[in-house]
Every structure is written in structure tokens, then in C-alpha cells.
């Protein structure tokens, strides 16, 4: 749902090509970016009544189906933003429609997107993580907790002081609200937690997975589109060799953030935030830290194999002989689903 902040035009677009919103109280300064597939464009503009800079997001829908779902997403984003009042969530200001095109006006934050190629020191990445976690704590402490559902580099702005801003609430949902089947895969592959991919209920731990994936992208200098290269067949991130200098405690914290089984992640943003605060990002860590990290790595790599062996033994040799290959395959599929905290029915959803 994000609007790329990389302008596809090499030159400056003549101002005569920008929409004219002067009668509505806005004057477009320039285009910030566009998402061609999503039919969305963002403009930087002046609010004429107060000489304040704002962002105007344009939503175009090309078919009856996208008209309905797109308008619903547009209305939902406005409804959620109206309820929020946080200094690092751009404030909703206005919305209007002209000639079948929808527009939403928000507060402008002078901060580039993490989707742009920028390098950060690991300690700076920790500061970004703390900043976003503070926003998630705010969202999760609402009377009806809000799940963003699309946290990734492109939807995070960071200023020179490393203050992070969370944008694009087009996929956000009230926790527990019913989600249409068609929206299960509306997020971004690689950043969506496994429970969302398989249509299971989302919790306060779901956004933590997406944030963890985003931080791993920053640490390894990996582009969002290449995040799949860091994920193995068991939905686990493998990034440690790319950043060997980080403290084992920080590594363990990150791994827990992106644990495929949501029950094994931090329960919510508040718990994750308090766990991160005292952790030193760089350095070899103490002997105990290194030992604990090594044990956890070994446990992760052997747990699936041991569980599979135990189940194969429990099934018995009679079943193995009568259905060669079939029972083994079913058990392996079931263990893969159980390993990420889902029931064995998920094997049907991933094409087995």
C-alpha cells in the first residue's frame, strides 16, 4: 500500500501538469512519488489558509472490483487516522473527491523513507527500532488496539535526529476485526508474518515480525524486494553471517522478533521495547551471552529434526510399510506447519 518516494520522472514535472486544488485551499509544490500499480500519487503542497506544507495522497481506481476495495481501504485509513494523535504519525487533515478521484491530506514530515538506499550504523538502527516500538506501544494501547499490517522500510520515515515516523495505514485493522479473505495477502511478501499468510488471527505480536524483518533489511543493507533471499524454507531468517559483529543479545532479540511461531515472539511492543532498551548492539558480549546465543541457534536448527524423528517413531513401522512415503510426507508437512504455530490444515494452503 505504500507510495514509493522514488520519482519515476528524471526531470521536474511542469507545475501545469499538477492538479489544481486552489479552490480547495491547497497549492501543489511538487510530486513526491507514485505507485503506478496501486494508482496512487503523493504531492507536496501548501495549505493556503495557514501557509503550512502538507502531503496530498491521490487514489485512482481502474475497475469496479478495485473501486470497491480501494474506496474501502481509503475510508478505513481515514477512519483510523482520525482516531490517532501521536507526534510521529502524520496527522490527518482533510479529504475530498474530484471527478471520481479521491484525495487525502496529511501533515508533512520532512524525513525521507527508509525505502531509499541509506546506510545506518547498528547503534542507529537500534534507535530507529526504539522509535517505531514507541509508536506501536501507542497503537496497541488504544481502547481497540490497532495493527498496522504493512510495516516495512518504505512505510517508515526517519529524520536526521533518527526520529522514525510510521505512515500508510491503508491496511491497518482494529485487532479482532473481521478481515475479508481477499485481504489476507494484501501486505508485502517477506514482511508479512506467517500467521497472516495462512489467514490466521493477527495479534499484537504480528507487527513485531514485520518490524524485525525491516531491521534485518537495514542491518544487512538488503533491499525490500530482496528480503526473500534471507528467509529459508522453514520461514526463518538467516542473516547472522552478514552482520557477525553484532552483540549476541541483540541477535537473539532480533531472532525472537521474527520467530515464525507468533507465540514465541514478544507478546507485544511494550515487552519488546523494554527488552531492547538495555541491550548493547555492538561487541562480542559476555561469555554467558555467547553461550546462550549458541544454545538457541543449536536448538532452532535441531528442534524440527528431533520432533520429526519422534513423530516418525510414534507412528510405527506398520504405517510406514503400508503407505510408503505418504505418511512420512504428511508428518513432515504437519511438523512444518506446527513449527510456525499453525494447525496441520495449513499444508493445504501452501500447496501440498
From TrEMBL:
Transmembrane segments: 303-321
Reaction equations catalysed: L-seryl-[protein] + ATP = O-phospho-L-seryl-[protein] + ADP + H(+); L-threonyl-[protein] + ATP = O-phospho-L-threonyl-[protein] + ADP + H(+)
Stored SUPFAM superfamilies: Protein kinase-like (PK-like) (SSF56112)
Keywords for the protein's UniProt record, in alphabetical order: ATP-binding, Kinase, Membrane, Nucleotide-binding, Serine/threonine-protein kinase, Transferase, Transmembrane, Transmembrane helix
Domain Protein kinase positions: 26-280
The protein's Enzyme Commission number: 2.7.11.1
Molecular function as annotated in GO: ATP binding; protein serine/threonine kinase activity
Name of the protein in its database record: non-specific serine/threonine protein kinase
Organism: Komarekiella delphini-convector SJRDD-AB1
